[in-house]
């Protein structure tokens, strides 16, 4: 193999490895509508602590006692930990307040923009 061909191959593979994560990323605005704010108080029932985004699920009771489960997408685990949110902070059974933007598809999913814990700690859960 010539030196020039080897150099091109190495550069090409390097560019390909850098471009892959970029292709997989998406905009929050593509999934969630900021014109449709959501604010709920409920009990944490499930936490999916994994990349690319942490998801947690909250059971919310309406005035008649009917329970609706809401799913909230947040930042990646590393970003949350830098803001003081660890997996242990999202304890199953904890009652939290969550503010965000509703999913564009109308489902009971939203961006979990701001989370307020029972102790009053208020944390930004996504980048602004």
Structural features, described:
The protein is α+β, with helices and mostly antiparallel strands. The chain has one domain: Nucleic acid-binding proteins (OB fold (Dihydrolipoamide Acetyltransferase, E2P)), CATH 2.40.50.140. It contains three helices and seven strands; from the N terminus they run ααβββαββββ. It has a seven-stranded mixed sheet. The radius of gyration is 19 Å and the shape is elongated.
Number of helices: 3
- Order of strands in the sheet with the most strands? 5-3-2-1-4-6-7
Task: Describe the global form.
Answer: elongated
* SSE sequence, one letter per element: HHEEEHEEEE
Which consecutive residue ranges, at least 5 long each, have pLDDT under 50? Answer: 19-23
Overall CATH architecture: Beta Barrel
| Termini Cα gap | 49 Å
* CATH superfamily placement: Nucleic acid-binding proteins
Radius of gyration: 19 Å
β-sheet strand percentage: 35-45%
The top level CATH class name: Mainly Beta
Helical/strand content category: alpha+beta
Average pLDDT level: 84
Overall structural domain count: 1
CATH topology: OB fold (Dihydrolipoamide Acetyltransferase, E2P)
Q: Roughly what percent helix?
A: 25-40%
Total strand count, please? 7
Largest sheet: number of strands, sense, barrel closure: 7 strands, mixed
